Amino acid sequence: MTNRRQFIKISIAGAGALTLGAGALKAMGWISKPENSGKIKVDLKRTPTYCEVCFWKCAGWVYKTSEGKIWKIIGNDEDQHCNGRFCPRGTGGVGMYYDEDRLKTPLIRVQERGKQVFREASWDEALDYIAAKMKNISSKSGPESMALFTHGSGSAYFTNLLKAYGSSNIAEPSYAQCRGPRDEAFLATFGEEVYSPEVTDIRDTKCLVLIGAHIGENMHNGQIQEMSDAIDKGVTIITVDPRFSTAAGKSKYWLPIKPSTDIALLLSWIHEIIYNGYYDKNYVEKYCSGFDKLKEHVKDFTPEWAYGITTIKPDLIRKTAKEMSNASPAVLIHPGRHVTWYGDDTQRVRAIAILNALLGSWGRRGGFYRPAKYDVPSAKIPKYTEAKKSWTDAFPGKFPIASSPVSNALIDASIPENKPGFLIKGWIVNATNLVSSIPGQLNTLKAIQNLDLLVSVDIMPMEITGWADVVLPECTYLERYDMLRISPHRKPAIALRMPAAEPMNNTRSGYNIARGLALRLGLESYFPFEKQEDLLDWQLKQVGSSLEEMQRIGVKTKARDADDLYYAENENVSFPTDSGKIELYSKAFEDAGFDPLPKYIAHEEPPAGFYRLIYGRAPMHTFGRTSNNPNLTDLMHENSVWINPKVSKEWGLAQGQYIWLKNQDGVISDFPIKVRVTERIRWDSVYMVHGFGHKQKQMKRCFGKGASDTQLITKVLVDPLMGGTGMRSNFVTFVTEKSEKEVAS
Amino acid sequence: MRYAMAVDTKKCVGCSDCVVACQTENNVPHGFCREWVVETMNGTYPQLEIEIRSERCNHCINSPCVRCCPTGASHFAEGGIVLVEHNKCIGCGACMASCPYDARYPHPDGYVDKCTFCIHRIKIGLAPACAAVCPTKCIYFGDLDDPNSDVSVVLKKRKSKTLIPEAGTKPQLYFLI
Asked: pTM here?
């Protein structure tokens, strides 16, 4: 076997072939696993769901074998998110259900926090315990002293619970650790965010510009499908990335930019587009404000100026600016999704928004389409009593542009030394592994040690569960109903998730958990339906459908009310900004004391012998959440560190060697990581996929596999506008000898 | 009838969805696979090229595996699909040794297993699981004897290659380049 595999490697390419995905599987040889070899009998019974392996929420069908076992999940042809095709994670979603390491029953901590000594508890006991603590916190410190950190579908129930309880301190790490700067930048410019799934009209674009966005490695299903369709139609792709990403491999132009200099490139593109008259003059005149100030601002930002900063040749900057202009308005400078890089991220994405505005792509075919959404009424519940203090009172004046609570600010408000305006005493953490998703792990752990209550709701024994007082095991999305999926898209659509199987072990759905707590807190009226399916049926009947119909069809799509996917020619549009125009110059930013137009500011560079740590995604995993999924670990079970051959030569590092990474603050990765020597990364940077190096032993397949980037991100550049945590600000060097490895604290 | 598959390397992103869809569709045991993804790279920074290919059994016309099988378990089915009859297979591994593409694996139940082009799906008019799931729609499948099949049309329109043609196996897995 080994010889054959090597033969293939040598025969294909001089410069190194790499087997991806199942490559590791092929070398494993004979292993006797008779329990896995059952024959399949097809039963056409299928139940609808929408996927919860990532936030794209593709709708599909769960098929079962005639023995009633969950067999496979296939995309729903009617669904705009997936068009009948799930991504590897969605296809491998069955592994989430079958993972034998899942949390099985509620747990209550019996020794000091973090020691991970728990006892099993009944649901009644666990929920009673939490409710008593929550009542105590409310009477002692006020309900605003409870915070919720949440992600995914369960957010709806725990948000409802916390608001009913009297707290508005509800943060999603997906804001300040991910897409927040993008949302704020587009809000400031167009008065609207780009939603999820993004309203990017990749399908019809003629020029797609990706700035650090690695579509194809991030598996945002609809975007990948549309990029592929666009490739068939001859799209010009321009990729800006210090790494030769998969998308760069599909691009006409790859701009191998020096990390942290993107704003300089964007400003020079804006300069080129304005001073060569490439911009959409009618569009800018009719819809935009602040053009003259912008023109003056970018006067000196020539391609030659940018060359000295970005290392991108002026000729290439000019050519790509012309390509964008040629495609205008069917040009899309992609807003990205995970954009918290250097702490000036809102300003960088503002430059992206401005560029799109100049080229007239907002609201135009091949740029950004206008989303439409199903109008479904919610259950009638009493009005929430207004929270007396919100997260902004913890640190008055901080992050004035933030339109959502900032997770890291809530963590800081849980540490007395920070002297917050009020102290947070309890956390509910739903479906987010806070110690891994928020940089500055030691800070998070310090906050945890100051809490009166930490509840973790999760499916897997993630690191955060080890720190909890009470661990509540949720069932997977394949075992529960959830709220209707009502995402905006080209056409309004709703999708149903229903259980394909009973909850395994002693697990419960998020709805049942939140409602169970509500009952104990005297907040039953906020959860008027005992069974979620009754709520869904009631909601669906309000819009002329029913639970029975949706169980049959899974997805219901209707026509738009009007033919308004794009703005009509010369349509009079009032944008939801202060001025009613697209604001190239942001008065709101200026009033809040920030630059009204984006500026390039130089960032710290790696010291000698250190390399900038860049991290990203692999198509077969979602953050660290899927690292233990048996189907997906078959595809990728560890991350590797990409190192340029010049650097590996200098350090004497061999392909496949395991090393430790050490950052600028002396933090050494807990676990070693495999070296991948490749020309695909700049010599001043290294790259690794996020989500590995798990420390939780209960996750047997992923424990100790690869290294954790989060552990190495100890220096965080916080965006002063909205609190985003810039995480591309860390530098690492290599530790090759185990004896050199200091004991991790 | 001659079944063939073409994979568009210009669209494939190497996500391995084909691998996991095959695994669940065909109940391939964990730790094994019937298909896999290969990435090759050429050049030096920043002049680089990559090619990504979703690979599997090539369902060769001149198949060494069929020829060398001592029990006749490896055989041609309709449309030239190379199959292994599990009951006849003694797991000797001769086919595995003869395959230039390393396309077969030893199933824990004692027989050799490989891609079937999802013949059970083709028979009821469905595409192979890998082609049906691929988010980039980079996998084309069909009958080469039918000039209007997806695979015939795309092979006519685009440049293509096969792997290790010098082995003389006449592979029916094409790569659009």
From this structure: 0.94
